[in-house]
Structures are given as structure tokens and as C-alpha cells.
Amino acid sequence: NSFGIKTADLSKDENPIDIAHSFSRGIGIDGVIVAGKTGTAEKNDISGKSYTVTFSGFVPAQNPNLLVVVVLHGLKGEKNSGGQIAAPLFSTITSQSLNVLESGSW
Questions:
Q1: Neighbours of 14 (CB within 10 A)
Q2: How many other CB atoms sit within 10 Å of the CB of residue 62?
Q3: CA angle (58, 16, 85) in 5-degree steps
Q4: Would you say 29 and 23 are in contact if contact means Cβ atoms under 8 Å apart?
Q5: Which of 1, 7, 51, 93 could in theory staple to 75 by disulfide, Cβ–Cβ 3.0 to 4.6 A?
Q6: What whole-number distance in Å separates Cα of residue 82 and Cα of residue 34?
Q7: Rounded distance, CA 23 to CA 68, Å?
Q8: Quick one: pLDDT at residue 63?
């Protein structure tokens, strides 16, 4: 699925994640306001229940220059949400990517 520029503008302007709240959830990046969304899908098949978790986000929220999408398939167990698993990975990947972009060493 895709969405138009108008939808993206609404997301950017209306859904930035509060920076203080985001640190408590494991998605905060020091000094950067993140705009993003978690996702969790449950799958049941003959091997049992598994999950696909996602976190998609861009930074900085008001003037984005980096988009990161984390998708993990086939997860099992109690930790099975995008916020618990994919969001902290997003934070690590995005923080390191911003450091590389800012240093010009890429």
C-alpha cells in the first residue's frame, strides 16, 4: 500500500512522538523528534502462532531527512509487539545512521 503526499503531510504534522514519552518507550533519539508508527500482526498456522512486528519512522519529524522501516517476521513468545521489539531497533539504527550522515563519512 502507498499513501499520497497529503496523507504524509498529515502524519508528519499531527503524529510526531513526544520526545520525553518516546524515551520511556525505547524509541527516543537524543535531541530529535521522531515521527513514527508501530505495527503488529499475528499469524496462526500449523507451526503455531507467530508475529510480524514493525516500526516505521522518520526524523526529524518536522523536516525529515531519514526514513527507517524495521520489519521482523516469525517472532514467537511474549514480547510480540512493534513497540517492544521493532521500536528500540529503530532507535538504534536511526541514531547510528544520523551520526554517519552528520559526520559525512558515508
A1: 8
A2: 10
A3: 65
A4: no
A5: 51
A6: 15
A7: 18
A8: 87
